[in-house]
Amino acid sequence: MPQETIQLVVTRFHPDHDPVPRFQTYTVPLHEDWVVLDALNYIKDTQDGTLSYRWSCRMGICGSCGMNVNGTPRLTCATFLREYAPGPIRVEPLANFPIIRDLVVDITDFMEKLPRVQPWLVRQDETPLTGGEYRQTPGEMERYHQFSLCINCMLCYAACPVYGLHPEFIGPAALALAHRYNLDSRDQGRAARQAEVYSEEGIWECTFVGQCSVVCPKKVDPAGAIQQEKVSAALDWLKSVVWPWGNR
Amino acid sequence: MTVNSPPNATRTYRPVMSPTWWWLRHPAWVQFMLRELSSVFIAAFLALYLARLGAFASGPAAYAAFQAWHRTPLSIALHVLILAFALLHSTTWFLLTPKIARVHVAGRSMSEKAVAGGALTAWAIVSALVAWWLLG
Ligand code: SF4
Ligand code: FES
What we know:
With 248 residues, chain A is an alpha+beta fold. Chain A contains 9 helices and 7 strands.
């Protein structure tokens, strides 16, 4: 007889009652087409209305449903229960972030880090709107396109032990976004981003564990972005040594 | 492991990672640690090689003693371990190459598999040539 239910072991934390998080086990139907988020919604609707978690689009685009599933960061709207049969499935809040309640984490740190790398087109010679758009060839776009697909789900931060051990690390997604703009032919902001990106808290904190790129649901490859920025930074340094009077 | 309650701020629970044993929590992190540890064995091999040169410079007796030590089970076990870590070191290194170097051919970027596959193949060919030259 096929398995009909599966157990979810879910982190519960209420700041008023729990000194530390605890686990609560729920049993849900194991439907072929149910994802972990469906199971959480089922629990909230039929078993326990107090369970708190974030979600919105249910289609892998809003980036709000990230949780650690059996220890690995996943978008719960894109993670099928059947992958984990016979279970149980451990559902925890995204690692490395402070827990506000149950599966909801405090993302303030990430929100503060993002603007520090100036993830927008920085221009030295701003042309007026009447001048039209900044043109770009498909080839020029291809160079950065992959790095522009980030949905800010923060799975990469949860997968990064360096961020867990050194929370001052700017982190994978923000650095990948800096790389995305550095590669953009319309952008002139690489020098302006340097102080943050090429700092101890920036790319040089990364030890290339590479797990950020493995968990990224959008194949952004933040680990690649960071190593490529390291190469650029090293080349800058080399140029400054052999050609100190050059226009860097 | 505390519940923080700064004034006017959300009270949150901050998970703490063990600074020493954090890597045991995920298989991928164990793999990473093995990869990093492999450098130690590469360094050990280079140290042994320098010792060999030192013994060679000190004359036939010293070199013969060094050679004799190399036939002991301890030395053989050590070298098997070094070989295993050298293979791990080189394989992971070449597999990570495409993350660092984007290769563009005719205006299109090559896939990661193609770059890593090319690097691994080149490595195998060069290793085979060196082995043939040394042992042949
Ligand atoms: S880089 Fe990937 S894992 Fe990280 S926030 Fe963006 S989409 Fe999510
Ligand atoms: S609910 Fe939007 S990404 Fe999962």
